[in-house]
Structure formats: structure tokens, C-alpha cells
Design a protein that fits this description.
alpha+beta, BirA Bifunctional Protein, domain 2, Rossmann fold, 5-stranded mixed beta sheet, 13 helices, 34% helix, 29% strand, binds glycyl-adenosine-5'-phosphate
């Protein structure tokens, strides 16, 4: 029996990364940004299928965190913020990386990432480390040099803490309750890379869950488990997902404890999401700096307290990359290699493709009627060009779970062919039953 080694695994995984990156470009998931000008420094644009898939990832997070619970509400705070917020949060002082320059080849590195040797030329001669703040700084106002300094947020979390009192009062929630946000964050990363794994502009999905201090350990365990299950449910294999409890010396400045949920990326296990116990660090810091009360008055005990915060903080763009890598597969059909994305139907950018067997109006007409019927409930595509085999392959490659083919028999029997992406099984089904059957398959997935 052939044994596969760890290096075989890394090689085949790197090949998968190349294949997925190329598929993303070729099929309109993810393009290098400003490509007609030669691209722009690890910045990416999401094409038609990528924009939809990213939206689906975020929607799935929102559905499980906000829609299906009665103890979490949503928020959409501003991206631009004044220095006072970032001074209080600790980001102005501590959100820095130590930078060194190689004296031999002049390349710049993060000191904590290079093990004392320049990865480019092997020199060990570096400049003194300098602290480099990762926040993007800009000016609010039209006159250069006279506007107010503003920062692009490096995380959505602070907008949640500064709105804590507003949200608690207006939503009439009390701990334990959470505030969820999805949105863009910006970090002037020194070493962006690995496709969209680390970029300077990215999207986060963050929950700040406010709890009575005595209950924080229980809620911390609860959220680690709940978030772990979320990735499994949506298609990350158990063998490729792990919980990594951070050592005390590796904790961020605000954290009393962090568990990273890590996916086995092609270069090894790496962070998808951090679940942190932030204690009362943030609310206390903002209360001190702003002079506003950011606590909760418990009517039952007659005492006020500052809630502790459990924070599951995920990257939407990074999660999308993991879902794509995990879904990529190749099998053989009629002696030919078939590339497919085994995406969960909730993440697939196209859920049902309607394929008229012929472009003749007597077929295309009814096919468009089927399309209109299914568009009410599903993300649909309509594809009338090339052979049916080629169209199936095209849909498999972008992860479409189901194809519906309208043919000449449809005109006689009112039935269509429903084809499954993974098993390639085809069944004949009445148009009148199609919606119910597709919903049944969704529920079963
Ligand atoms: N509020 C806590 C916080 O922001 P973080 O671990 O720095 O914690 C949370 O970020 C998640 O955001 C990460 O686990 C990752 O998925 C995503 N993320 C962070 N920096 C990123 C970057 N430069 N590019 C893509 N995703 C990033």
C-alpha cells in the first residue's frame, strides 16, 4: 500500500491552491484588482460568482447568529473613526508589528516572522526593529493637512463597543445578549499574501456577546463549540478543522483567553476565526475615555456591572477561500477528468441551472417559465449554449448543486430532468413538483 507523506500532502495541496486560484479567475469568482493597470498589491475584486458566494457566506453567518436567535441583534457601524476611539481601544499604541530591514538586500520583514535570517538572501544583519502601526490613517475634510485625522477601522468590534449603550437601550436587551456586525476592515499588513488569506482590505464577521462576568467561561466554551460546528455544517471536513488554544504569552492585549479555529490551508493549519474572552477590557476602556457609563444595571440585584465580552471574530473573505479549497474536487467521467466544487447549496453562487436542450423557441419558452418559477426561491442560472455535457461540466466547476434540463419530451409530459452535481444521478420529475423536490433536497443537505 502506498503511504502518503506530509510533504506529498503539501505538494498536492499547493497544486489545489493553484487550481482554485486559477478557477476563481477563469470563472469570475475573484480577480486581481486593477488588473488592467498591472494589479494593486494583494488587492482583489469579487466577480459575478464571487460576489454572490461572498454574500452567501455572510448571509449564512447572519442567519445562524442573528436570524435564528433571539439574543443577538445586528449593527452596521461606520468604517471611518476618530483617533479617540483607537486611543481608548489600545490600537494606536499596541496594534503594531516590529519591522526590520535586511542590511544586505534591503528587503523589509516582520521581525517575529523571520527567525533571524533574511528569507530572501540569508543575511543575519538587520536594522533595529521599529514599531509599525497597521491602521490606515487619512484626513476627513477637503483641505490637505487641515482636516481631522481619521482611521479606517482595523476591526468592526470597536464600533460595537462604542454603540453598546445605544443598542442595549433601543433593543431592550440585557446580558447575556450579543451584537453582530459584518463589514470591511483595513490593515496595512506588511506581508499580505496567499491569495485572499491575508489582504489589506477584507471583510469580517464579528459577534460581541455581552455576559455577566460570572458566566463568561461557560459562554466562551459555548461559542467555541457553536462556531466550530458552523464550519463543519457548511462543508469543512472535520480532519481539516481544529481548535487551537492560544498560549498566555501569545494573547492579544485585550484577551483573557483565545481559541483559534484553524483550517488546514495548503501551507498548514492557519487561523479562520478567533474566539476570545475579552473580559471587560473594551467597555471599561471606552467608559474611562469617554466619561459615559457603559454598564448594565441589574434590576434583580439592584447592582450595576460591566458585562464581559465573548467575541467570535471571523473573516468572511478568508472563510470563503477555505470553503472553496475544501470544496474543490476532481473525479473521472467517461475517462475524462471532471473538476467540481462540492459547495454546500447555501454557499453555492448558483443553486439551480436551467438548461434548455435546444435553442428553439418551443423549448426555450417553457425553459424560461421554469426559470421564473425557480428564481422565486433559488439562485438560478440560464444556460442555452453548447452541448448538454459541456454545460453540466461548466456548472459542476462552479459548484451548482442541481441542473434542470428542459427537452422535447417536456412539451408532451410536463416533466424535466433533474441532475445532481455530486452523484450525477438524473431523475425525471413533473415541473409542478420541482420546487417541493428541490426544497426537500435542501432540507436534507
Ligand atoms: N476583533 C478581533 C479581531 O479582529 P483578528 O484575529 O485580528 O481579531 C479576526 O481578526 C479574523 O479576521 C481573523 O481570524 C481572520 O479570519 C480575519 N482577518 C484578520 N486580518 C485579516 C487580513 N489581513 N486579511 C483577511 N482576513 C483577515
Amino acid at each position: 500500500m502506498a503511504m502518503s507523506s506530509e510533504s506529498d500532502h503539501v505538494d498536492s495541496q499547493n497544486e489545489t491552491l493553484e487550481k482554485v486560484t486559477s478557477l476563481c479567475k477563469r470563472r469570475g469568482f475573484i480577480f486581481p484588482s486593477a488588473e488592467i493597470y498591472g494589479g494593486f498589491r494583494s488587492t482583489y475584486d469579487y466577480g459575478p460568482l464571487g460576489a454572490q458566494m461572498l454574500r452567501n457566506v455572510k448571509q449564512e453567518w447572519w442567519r445562524s447568529i442573528v436570524q435564528l436567535r433571539d439574543d443577538v441583534v445586528g449593527l452596521d457601524a461606520a468604517i471611518l473613526g476618530p483617533p479617540a476611539v483607537w486611543a481608548a481601544s489600545g490600537h494606536l499604541e499596541t496594534f503594531t508589528d516590529p519591522l526590520v530591514d535586511c542590511k544586505s538586500c534591503n528587503e523589509r520583514w516582520r521581525e517575529d516572522k523571520i527567525d533571524g535570517v533574511c528569507p530572501k538572501c540569508g543575511s543575519t544583519d538587520f536594522t533595529e526593529a521599529r514599531a509599525f502601526n497597521l491602521m490606515f490613517k487619512t484626513q476627513a475634510g477637503p483641505v490637505e493637512g487641515e482636516g481631522a485625522t481619521a482611521y479606517l477601522r482595523p476591526e468592526t468590534a470597536q464600533g460595537t463597543f462604542t454603540n453598546f449603550a445605544n443598542v442595549m437601550t433601543t433593543s431592550r436587551k440585557k446580558p447575556p445578549f450579543g451584537i453582530a456586525q459584518i463589514g470591511k476592515s483595513f490593515r496595512n499588513e506588511i506581508t499580505p499574501g496567499n491569495f485572499v488569506f491575508r489582504t489589506r482590505e477584507f471583510e469580517q464577521m464579528e459577534l460581541e456577546f455581552f455576559v455577566p462576568p460570572a458566566d463568561s467561561a461557560t459562554w466562551y466554551d459555548y461559542w467555541v463549540e457553536a462556531r466550530y460546528e458552523w464550519y463543519l455544517r457548511l462543508g469543512i471536513p472535520e480532519a481539516d478543522l481544529r481548535k487551537n488554544v492560544a498560549a498566555p504569552e501569545d494573547l492579544a492585549h485585550y484577551s483573557l483567553g483565545t481559541t483559534d479555529l484553524e483550517y488546514r490551508f495548503p501551507w498548514g493549519f492557519d487561523e479562520l476565526e478567533g474566539v476570545a474572552n475579552r473580559g471587560d477590557y473594551d467597555l471599561s476602556a471606552h467608559a474611562r475615555a469617554s466619561g459615559e457609563k457603559l454598564d448594565y444595571f441589574d434590576q434583580s440585584t439592584g447592582e450595576a456591572y460591566t458585562p464581559h465580552v465573548i467575541e467570535p471574530a471571523a473573516g468572511a473573505t478568508r472563510a470563503m477561500m477555505a470553503f472553496l479549497l475544501a470544496a474543490y474536487a476532481e473525479d473521472s467521467v467517461g475517462g475524462e477528468v471532471r473538476a467540481l466544487l462540492r459547495l454546500h447549496w447555501r454557499l453555492a453562487p448558483i443553486q439551480v441551472a436551467v438548461l434548455p436542450l435546444s435553442k428553439k423557441p418551443e423549448i426555450e419558452g417553457p425553459a424560461r417559465e421554469v426559470l421564473a418559477l425557480l428564481q422565486q426561491d433559488f439562485l438560478c442560472d440560464f444556460d442555452a449554449t453548447q452541448s448538454i455535457g459541456k454545460r453540466y461540466r461548466r456548472q459542476d466547476e462552479v459548484g451548482t448543486p442541481w441542473c434542470v434540463t428542459v427537452d422535447f419530451d417536456t412539451l408532451e409530459d410536463g416533466c424535466v430532468t433533474l441532475r445532481d452535481r455530486d452523484s450525477m444521478e438524473q431523475v425525471r420529475i413533473a415541473i409542478a413538483d420541482l420546487r417541493v423536490e428541490l426544497k426537500r433536497r435542501c432540507d436534507a443537505a
